């Protein structure tokens, strides 16, 4: 038997979370477990309105953890994330799926988290404290890190500096064979601070260190793109599942990274 507990604030919900409890955000993952009879005995939710807020903040945007993909698409402040949110599921999923939930979505989901990782987003946890890099949260997400209150997302200084590609067999809303996000800030044409992130190429969203090294300090051209593509799968650990084998993912990673980077020239 599963019980649902509702709290008026995120802080109260965070205190109520204990071993074996699941937090209900948009419900795209948890409700599937409820319907399958595999949900935990306690489900915690909150009606805290702050979770649905989107606000401009400094050089970027802050998204409440309960903000849906549909809200992102309707927000002028989050316009640089529209191409990513548009590729998350179909209309029903976008109306329910949340930013915070996407950070914890199991493979093969979590495409939005891949983009946030590439952008260098930081998470604000319930209970306060300094924002922490999303990369740290993703690494520790299997160890009950607490409830996410919001995500701070820096805006790319140049629209050409950010790109996202979702690779799937079923268009437009199939689950990912892989997803790739790239942030390539340029100073005088030279890439400074390259960030490449992958989805469905490991247990969760991962950085692509080999491709980043090939791009850093270079001018984006055909030769540099070819070197980055050759290093695409370095350090990654793609799974084998019903969608694709690990071998296939490794083989095509460079092809799709090349396509994404060519679109950013």
Write up what this structure looks like.
It contains eleven helices and 14 strands. Helices cover 32% and strands 23% of the residues. It folds into three domains: 3-46, no CATH class; 49-154, 2-Layer Sandwich (Uridine Diphospho-n-acetylenolpyruvylglucosamine Reductase, domain 3), CATH 3.30.465.10; 159-262, CO dehydrogenase flavoprotein, C-terminal domain (Enolase-like, domain 1, 2-Layer Sandwich). The mean pLDDT is 92.
CATH hierarchy: architecture of the largest domain: 2-Layer Sandwich
Based on CA atoms alone, the radius of gyration comes out at 18 Å
Multimer state? single chain
Mean pLDDT, all residues: 92
CATH class of the largest domain: Alpha Beta
Kindly name the structural category. alpha+beta
Largest sheet: 5 strands, antiparallel
Helix coverage percent: 25-40%
Q: Roughly what fraction of the amino acids lie in strands? A: 15-25%
- Count of helical segments? 11
Number of strands: 14
Mass-distribution shape:
globular
Query: What is the rounded distance between the termini?
Result: 55 Å
Indicate the low-confidence ranges by residue numbers.
none
